[in-house]
Design brief:
The chain is of the alpha+beta class. It has one domain (10-211). Helix content is 23%, strand content 26%. It is built from 6 helices and 9 strands, in the order βββααββααββββαα. It has helices at residues 60-71, 76-81, 102-107, 121-132, 191-194, 203-211; strands at residues 10-14, 17-22, 53-57, 84-90, 92-98, 137-141, 149-154, 158-161, 175-185. The protein has a 5-stranded mixed β-sheet with strand order 1-5-6-7-3. A hairpin with a 7-residue loop joins β6 (137-141) and β7 (149-154). It is globular.
């Protein structure tokens, strides 16, 4: 039985999103060859060895904040040493669960706290339920940067280089238009001042709790 009291709204649209990837990595996670299978480390919406998830943000700052938080970048030296590619992408999707605000999460009977918890167990279980219910992904509050919304796509995706207006996509269920927005750049300096590191309070959640 699903843990929600009311099923999340299903969104169908073309999103404008961003994600970063390190040098030597393609824009998306997908299976490697049989000789060199690819394993994606566990994160909020998936477990390692149980498929893939594509973690994106609807803002560039959100994508960089996720990198800074994940890598624990705190100093100017660490920032300059960390280089990544920032990709702009346009996934044409359907059945994306709209859990983009704490109010919407609460209205579905879910606990907003799990969405920004450093322990991902509850969100991983929710992702199982969403996939079983036919959802292809979820939009949700960023745990790394208050006020930003993240988009997570369930399953493998492959890159289709070019903008939607320039390149025809015959398989939007698998391929996603991508364009390189920053090539092996360090995270912007201001991200270190606004990112929410592990163990810190989430200002957006704290403000929401105070108003409930």
């Amino acid at each position: 039985m699903a843990s929600w009291h009311r099923e999340p709204e299903r969104l169908s649209q073309t999103f404008n999103a961003f994600r970063q990837a390190g040098e030597g990595f393609p824009p998306f996670w997908h299976p490697g060859s049989t000789r060199r299978p690819t394993a994606q480390p566990s994160a909020r919406w998936h477990r390692e060895g149980e498929g893939f998830a594509q973690y994106c943000s609807l803002e560039t700052d959100g994508a960089w904040a996720e990198l800074v938080r994940w890598e624990g970048i705190r100093t100017e030296t660490e920032r300059q040493e960390q280089r990544a590619r920032l990709w702009q992408l346009w996934p044409k999707e359907h059945d994306i669960a709209d859990l983009s605000t704490f109010d919407q999460i609460d209205a579905c009977g879910l606990d907003p706290a799990i969405f920004i918890d450093d322990d991902h167990t509850a969100c991983q279980a929710l992702a199982d339920e969403l996939r079983d219910a036919g959802y292809r992904g979820v939009i949700s509050p960023s745990a790394a940067l208050a006020g930003v919304i993240n988009l997570t796509l369930f399953g493998a995706r492959r890159e289709l280089y070019g903008r939607p207006a320039d390149v025809l996509n015959l398989r939007p269920d698998l391929y996603v238009h991508v364009n390189l927005a920053a090539d092996l750049s360090p995270p912007p300096e201001h991200i270190l001042r606004v990112v929410r590191y592990y163990g810190e309070p989430h200002l957006g959640y704290e403000t929401w709790i105070a108003g409930v």
